[in-house]
């Protein structure tokens, strides 16, 4: 046992996750302290502990356990996602909560993990000795199925998380740069469209230039550029004509939260005031006027970062960011250390999904990203998401423990 | 395939770069907010916090065709409580003053607290002046209690026009889910009538006011000099086609009855008056509606909330005969020479069919058939015209379809057809005997008073049919500009000669020696009409009368229906006379007799004792 902890236990990953979970407990405690929701703190404690147990169980599993169970895990979560669509309870306008024996759960959180593992397994198997376009199509299918089912709930936030699985894993797998750029282009054009027509035009031109720089075949570059322009035009039409008003509104409010001063704009404004007023050292624990006075809504889930920002200030926020950053670098390091391609790809997927969550969640607290409602890993209150975060840590720990094996 | 570059050094570098860029972007933004602009945000957070107050726009007014106001707004007082400031021990005292349940206040405060204990929670709207003064006197005891004014609908003028105007009320949970993002709990929305159908035009747009509030919840003034404020936009005014005086008269004539009056302007289809009796006082709904008031209205067996003029589809009786007459004349299956000798009853399909009251009308042609309302004639005419053509012509006059009036609820009525009978009774399970009832507007056929008025209007207009409508134009109160609302119109493909004969029959109903609607006769105005008395299985017959006047250039077309009242000629015709006389006088027509040679026997001389049909 002692040997195991000396040789095979990745202290860095574990303790970074533990620090983040601890920050989460502090924040949830503060967010719910004065509002009669304080049992959320104890529930959070319970979920974090359960998460650690799950992480250790995965870590102590055999070398190929994670890899061998990937497809099965994927199948189960897909079935759960389908079941949710049929029988799920509606929570806050989408149907992702699944009641199992009275315990609420979001299968979409688990589906993310399953999709990372399945895509990695597919790409690492020998069966991928196929033409490049076929591999890309099958990969898109693996990611697209749970993505579609999540979209139908509809849960916009979790849906876009899947892009953070697809692109980084394919990139790590060695996809040629021109293909990566061509695949990223549509997504970037979508984002550009939401930002404004001028940004859209610049983005489309930039991709055209990139295509010509990265491709030796001029005809190919011209074709890609033409597709990019057409897609840009389509997006303009899609955004203005097809998108539901409440979806458009969310995007517009991201650009200008004042448009909805009572709703999402109010949340965004209050979150910014809370964080901004934290200053360098913050107002002190449990002393954040904004969060304690409950001006910030959903402050133990989507807006939990306001508690950190207001009560611990820039220093507290920076510590949190550093812990996340170190964890992400550790994820990349593990991807380099391990001997199997599966483990390497999975480690990249886990890292990028966590990074994406952090960027979008904190981003929406500080007006850098739209308010799409995805949790801050380890910190936001929520059983399924905490469990999924610790599962991912467990998988990293397992990879590290078996890093020298093939 | 792309094995060679898997996990390469360059790719690892790019990955790490991506992480750093993302985290630095966050750190930079945080630094900007927390270090550079901390003072700004700190001010917002510590000294003052912002609170958003919704500014309700003034709902548009509704005016009649002459610019007479029918609905306007008055201020009403509402009481709000800020849970954090309010001493819970005072709840019973406040409840007693406002005459509401303690539990009611507590429940609302609890709901409000889940948003923020610093948000005002409305406890009661439209409080009485007595309660207002009482609370103001004890304002020291009631810390955290606030007053606010909000507009309340006030109905002015003699006419109630309850079913035209409709009422407004606090939004229901169901409406919140369906009406969209604009609405928030507590908002007032149009429930029925024009208030509902023109809701988005009348309501205007909410405004938002940002107020700076200090730590104890005291309002310090506008936040950021009101730069973020969005002023409310008042709703637009509706100018109706309705004549308030005529409407009031129709309402008073219908007092104590169950039925409806609809009067249309034949020049454009505008509704001059539309009433459904019994009606209700829309003022009951503005401001605070007590449960007892609501239950009284809901449980009244006469259904005062039900708009009979557009919703009550009933057999229209003999007023429907012009459909058959038009069909027969247009298809030329019968002309004015074709006569029936009415002996008061006829045997058809082994069943004895009676003329109205078993009266024997003697030899009548199609025009006299209308004048005396001879059922025997029209039974026989139906068998000549046939079911399909009858249905076709009913459709031309707009039966079995909604008129498209600018109200939210309207019944289409039933215009039976072969297919409809096959569906209802089963194929081959019905006989031609069923048709005889349809010939005289009874049995399966049904129409709303509005449809009957539109049908009368199109006969008056020689087939020109205008979509009935209430709103003439909309006035944007900010720009002062008028917008005329667009309505459809069409021409019914029936020849002028046919209408001449049908109109002559209707003229004789009121003015002929044997007319059934003589109670509407007036020396100074030539009125044309048609009576109807439709059997009602529940009690006395429903009385109908449709009419238009003046005969030559009609200015009003009217349909009156009174449930379980008896004869249309004796119940409804006198009412039509009064309404027509009032309206024509009001628009400056002092006399309009029938010019020589227009009717009065133009087609009557064709009547000869010719061959008797074989059906007798």
Reconstruct the topology from this structure.
The complex is a heterodimer of chains A (406) and B (616).
Chain A: H1 2-7, H2 11-33, H3 39-59, H4 65-87, E1 89-91, E2 94-100, E3 103-105, H5 107-124, H6 132-151, H7 156-161, H8 163-172, H9 177-195, H10 197-214, H11 218-242, H12 245-255, H13 264-276, H14 289-292, H15 305-337, H16 341-365, H17 383-401
Helix pairs in contact in A: 2-3, 2-15, 3-17, 4-5, 4-6, 5-6, 5-8, 5-16, 5-17, 6-8, 8-16, 9-10, 9-11, 10-11, 13-15, 15-16, 16-17
Chain B: H1 9-36, H2 38-47, E1 48-55, E2 62-63, E3 69-81, H3 91-98, H4 102-115, E4 121-124, H5 129-137, E5 145-155, H6 162-165, E6 168-170, H7 173-179, E7 188-190, H8 193-197, H9 199-203, E8 207-214, E9 219-222, E10 237-240, H10 244-253, E11 259-264, E12 271-277, H11 291-299, H12 308-311, H13 321-331, E13 340-342, E14 345-348, E15 351-354, E16 362-364, H14 366-372, H15 375-385, H16 387-396, H17 418-425, H18 433-439, H19 449-460, E17 464-466, E18 471-475, E19 482-484, E20 489-491, H20 496-511, E21 528-534, E22 542-549, E23 556-562, H21 568-571, H22 573-586
Parallel strand pairs in B: 2-10
Antiparallel strand pairs in B: 1-8, 2-3, 3-4, 3-5, 6-7, 8-9, 10-18, 11-12, 11-23, 13-16, 14-15, 17-20, 18-19, 21-22, 22-23
Helix pairs in contact in B: 3-4, 10-22, 13-15, 13-16, 14-20, 15-18
């Amino acid at each position: 046992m002692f040997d195991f902890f000396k040789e095979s236990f990745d202290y860095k990953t574990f303790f970074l996750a533990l620090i983040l979970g601890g920050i989460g407990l502090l924040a949830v405690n503060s967010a719910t302290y004065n509002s009669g929701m304080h049992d959320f703190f104890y529930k959070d404690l319970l979920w974090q502990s359960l998460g650690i147990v799950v992480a250790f169980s995965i870590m102590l599993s055999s070398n190929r356990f994670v890899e061998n169970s990937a497809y099965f895990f994927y199948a189960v979560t897909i079935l759960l996602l389908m079941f949710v669509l049929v029988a799920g309870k509606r929570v806050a306008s989408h149907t992702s909560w699944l009641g199992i024996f009275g315990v609420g759960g979001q299968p979409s959180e688990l589906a993310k993990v399953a999709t990372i593992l399945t895509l990695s397994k597919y790409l690492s198997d020998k069966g991928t000795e196929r033409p490049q376009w076929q591999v890309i199509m099958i990969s898109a299918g693996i990611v697209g199925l749970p993505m579609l089912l999540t979209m139908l709930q509809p849960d916009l936030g979790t849906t876009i998380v899947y892009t953070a699985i697809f692109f980084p894993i394919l990139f790590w797998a060695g996809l040629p740069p021109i293909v990566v750029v061509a695949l990223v282009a549509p997504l970037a054009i979508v984002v550009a469209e939401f930002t404004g027509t001028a940004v859209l035009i610049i983005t489309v031109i930039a991709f055209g230039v990139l295509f010509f720089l990265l491709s030796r075949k001029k005809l190919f570059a011209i074709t890609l550029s033409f597709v990019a322009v057409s897609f840009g035009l389509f997006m303009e039409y899609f955004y203005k004509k097809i998108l539901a008003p409440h979806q458009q509104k969310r995007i517009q409010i991201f650009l200008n939260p004042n448009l909805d001063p009572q709703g999402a704009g109010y949340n965004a404004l209050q979150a910014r005031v809370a964080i901004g007023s934290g200053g360098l050292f913050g107002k002190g624990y449990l002393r954040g006027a904004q969060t304690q006075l409950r001006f910030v809504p959903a402050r133990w889930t989507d807006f939990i970062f306001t508690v950190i920002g207001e009560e611990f200030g820039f220093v507290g926020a920076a510590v949190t960011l550093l812990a996340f950053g170190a964890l992400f670098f550790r994820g990349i390091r593990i991807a380099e250390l391990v001997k199997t391609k599966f483990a390497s790809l999975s480690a990249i997927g886990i890292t990028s999904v966590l990074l994406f969550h952090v960027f979008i969640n904190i981003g929406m607290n500080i007006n850098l990203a739209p308010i799409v409602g995805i949790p801050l890993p380890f910190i936001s209150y929520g059983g399924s998401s905490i469990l999924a975060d610790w599962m991912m840590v467990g998988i990293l720990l397992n990879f590290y423990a078996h890093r020298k094996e093939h | 395939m792309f094995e060679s570059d898997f996990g390469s050094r360059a790719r690892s570098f790019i990955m790490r770069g991506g992480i750093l860029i993302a985290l630095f972007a966050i750190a930079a933004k945080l630094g900007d907010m927390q270090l550079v602009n901390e003072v700004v945000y700190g001010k917002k957070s510590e000294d003052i916090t912002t609170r958003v107050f919704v500014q309700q726009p003034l709902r548009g007014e509704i005016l009649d065709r002459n610019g007479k106001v029918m609905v306007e707004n008055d201020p009403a007082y509402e009481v709000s409580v800020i849970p954090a400031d309010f001493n819970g021990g005072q709840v019973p005292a406040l409840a007693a003053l406002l005459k509401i349940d303690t539990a009611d206040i507590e429940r609302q405060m609890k709901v409000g607290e889940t948003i923020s204990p610093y948000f005002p929670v409305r406890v009661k709207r439209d409080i009485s002046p007595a309660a207002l003064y009482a609370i103001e006197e004890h304002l020291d005891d009631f810390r955290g209690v606030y007053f606010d004014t909000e507009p309340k609908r006030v109905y002015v003028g003699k006419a109630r026009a309850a079913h035209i105007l409709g009422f407004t009320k606090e939004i229901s949970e169901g409406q919140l889910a369906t009406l969209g993002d604009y609405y928030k709990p507590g908002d007032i929305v149009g429930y029925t009538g024009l208030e509902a159908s023109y809701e988005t035009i009348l309501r205007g747009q909410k405004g938002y006011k940002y107020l700076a509030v200090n730590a104890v919840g005291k309002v310090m003034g506008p936040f950021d000099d009101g730069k973020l404020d969005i002023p409310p936009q008042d709703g637009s005014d509706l100018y109706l086609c309705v004549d308030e005086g005529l409407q009031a008269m129709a309402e008073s004539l219908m007092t104590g009855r169950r039925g409806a009056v609809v009067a249309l302007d034949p020049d454009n289809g505008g509704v001059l008056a539309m009433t459904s009796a019994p009606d209700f006082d829309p003022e009951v709904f503005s401001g605070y509606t007590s449960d007892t008031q609501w239950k009284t209205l809901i449980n009244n067996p006469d259904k005062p909330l039900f708009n009979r003029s557009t919703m009550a589809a009933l057999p229209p009786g003999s007023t429907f005969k012009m459909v058959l007459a038009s069909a027969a004349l247009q298809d030329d299956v019968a002309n004015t020479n074709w006569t029936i000798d009415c002996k008061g009853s006829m045997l058809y399909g082994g069943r004895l069919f009676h003329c109205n009251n078993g009266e024997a009308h003697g030899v009548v042609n199609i025009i006299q058939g209308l004048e005396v309302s001879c059922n025997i004639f029209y039974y026989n005419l139906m068998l000549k015209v046939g079911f399909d053509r009858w249905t076709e012509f009913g459709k031309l006059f707009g039966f079995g379809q909604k008129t498209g009036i600018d109200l939210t609820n309207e019944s289409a009525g039933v215009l039976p057809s072969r297919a409809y009978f096959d569906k209802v009774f089963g194929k081959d399970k019905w006989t031609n005997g069923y048709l005889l009832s349809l010939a005289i507007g009874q049995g399966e056929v049904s129409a709303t008073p509005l449809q009957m008025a539109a049908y009368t209007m199109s006969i008056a207009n020689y087939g020109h049919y205008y979509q009935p409508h209430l709103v003439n134009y909309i006035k944007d109160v900010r720009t002062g500009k008028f917008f005329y609302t667009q309505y459809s119109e069409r021409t019914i493909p029936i020849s002028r000669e046919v209408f001449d004969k049908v109109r002559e029959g209707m003229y004789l109903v009121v003015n002929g020696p044997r007319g059934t609607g003589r109670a509407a006769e007036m020396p100074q105005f030539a009125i044309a009409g048609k009576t109807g008395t439709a059997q009602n299985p529940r009690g006395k017959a429903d009385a109908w009368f449709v009419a238009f006047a003046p005969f030559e250039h009609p200015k009003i077309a009217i349909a009156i229906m009174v449930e379980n009242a008896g004869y249309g000629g004796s119940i409804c015709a006198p009412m039509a006379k009064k309404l027509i006389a009032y309206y024509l006088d009001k628009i400056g027509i002092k006399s309009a007799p029938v010019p020589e040679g227009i009717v009065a026997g133009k087609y009557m001389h064709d009547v000869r004792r010719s061959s008797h049909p074989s059906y007798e």
